[in-house]
Amino acid sequence: MKLPLRLTLFFTAAALALGAAEPKRPRILGISHAAFYVTDMAKARAFYEGFLGYASPFSIPRKNGGDLVWIKINDHQTIELFPGAEVAPDAHRLYHIAFEVDDAEAMRVYLQSKGVKVPDKTAVGKIGNKNYFITDPNGNTVEIVEYLPDGWTMREKGKFLPDSRVSVHMPHVGVMVGQLDASLKFYGDILGFKETWRGSKGGKTLNWVNLQVPDGTDYVEFMLYDKYPVLDRVHTLEHICLEVADVAKTGELLKGRTLPEGCKPPTPIATGVNGKRQINYYDPDGTRVEVMEPHTFDGKPVPPSSAPPPVSQPPEPPAAAPPAKAG
Fold first, then answer.
1. What's the pLDDT tens digit per position in 224-278?
2. Measured between alpha carbons, how far is 299 from 296 in angstroms, rounded to an integer?
3. Nearest to 326 by CA among 37, 26, 43
4. How many CB atoms lie within 10 A of CB 101?
5. What residue ranges do the domains of the chain occupy?
6. Mapping DSSP to helix (H, G, I), strand (E, B) and coil, where does residue 130 land?
7. Which of 83, 101, 113, 282 is most buried by its number of CB atoms within 10 A?
């Protein structure tokens, strides 16, 4: 049956309008992992497995030797350890951070519509998850990950979760940020993260800005700087956080475990500017692992700082090109 011209035009216009609609951002559920280059895999594993009490669900060999090792925090979060031989000795230890999404391909299309450089297609990595890399305005590498039902991550669901784990949740990762405005637009306007707090050590200059994923409770912590820091300081700024109910009890527990040779001693228990009690530990490469309670010491919120951000140098170029796939 032939439609009247008026209806034909109506449906054609509707179809064009639907086709021209901007892609919607899929859900960003939380932090998937943080990936670090380590100079000595045996010592790194002794720290994350032996000292912090985690287990490795799997590893895969790398093209140039050594293995990429996964350290499992919970069914959705890991730490990835890459052989340090893949980068220059003075390279950053942090390779990338990763966020879990419910639809990696839809996210790729959405990011492309916002002018973000993305790959031509969404690949499936060696461990069976959809993944690809993008770069934030400060040069930080960000991986987008979708866990597939038949991928290795979901295959090992409920496994490799020993009682020895010092924490069962990684609530945030810290990345260096020199270009705050550009980063707020990228993580806030494009990715939909919501700013939850900003802090200052002395009240004159801003030091931290926290932005929470749109569809979960995890967040990324911007570590602001003015003069580009020396490498040891970089290892402290680029960090992960492990959440514990009682940091004093955790500190006592870890005193009974062997800290691998070469690790800096942990800091004493302290209350941060954010009002939360914490202890800082350091892996054999100096990467900081912040063990922190989820709430302020007195239960009262710490108001955000109104201090201005530092005026920083532009981000440095990466020390080496990253591998094509994380796994």
1. 999 999 999 999 999 999 999 999 999 999 999 999 999 999 999 999 999 999 9
2. 5
3. 37
4. 27
5. 28-292
6. strand
7. 101
Q: How far is CA 265 from CA 129, 228, 279, in A?
A: 37, 25, 11
Distance, in Å, from the CA atom of 70 to the CA atom of 163, rounded to the nearest integer, reads: 18
Residue 1 has pLDDT above 60, yes or no: no
- Domain 28-292 fold is 2,3-Dihydroxybiphenyl 1,2-Dioxygenase; domain 1 (3.10.180)
Contact residues for 195 (Cβ-Cβ < 8 A; gap 6+): 184, 188, 209, 210, 211, 212
55, β-bridge pairs: 72
Write down the residue that tokens 């000292």 correspond to. 51
DSSP single-letter state for residue 55:
B
**Structure token digits, residue 279:** 């202890």
pTM score, whole prediction? 0.90
pLDDT at 20 over 60: no
The secondary structure of 195-229 as a DSSP string is EEEEE-SSSSS--EEEEE-TTSS-EEEEEE-SSPP
CB atoms within 10 A of CB 75: 17
Residue 86 phi/psi, 5-degree rounding, is: -80, -10
Which helix (H) or strand (E) covers residue 37, if one does? strand 28-38
pLDDT at 87: 94
What contacts 197, CB < 8 A, 6 or more positions away? Answer: 208, 209, 210, 274, 302, 304
Write the CB contacts of 85 (distance below 8 Å, at least 6 apart in sequence).
64, 65, 66
Rounded mean pLDDT of 64-85? 97
Dist CA 29 CA 214 (whole Å): 7
Contacts of 258 (CB under 8 A, 6+ apart): 46, 50, 51
Note the pLDDT tens digit of each residue in 142-168: 999 999 999 999 999 999 999 999 999
277 backbone dihedrals φ, ψ, rounded to 5°: -75, 140
